[in-house]
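Bit of a strange request maybe. I'm writing a small parser for structure token strings and I need a real example to test against, not something I typed by hand. Could someone generate the tokens for this chain?
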Amino acid sequence: MTRKTAIPSSFVMDVPPFGGGFLGHVERRDSLADFVLKEAVIYGNVMGSFAVEDFGIDRFLKINADNVQRRFEKYRNLVYF
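Reply from user aminoacidic:
Good idea to test on real output. This should exercise your parser:
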């Protein structure tokens, strides 16, 4: 069964890295609860931090979900809420 989303996949791919990280997390959690939105802000910042490490999409081609999750944990611990 394919789940319909409020945010088309093509839209997420067309937004800057922050938006992609933010919207991707909200979509994955399927919730707009405060704690989910706070996590989404961190994921947005994490994706933005990868974006500035290299030109264009080069850095994104070299990362995986584990890289993102490790950076998320570090960032979350830094800005504990």
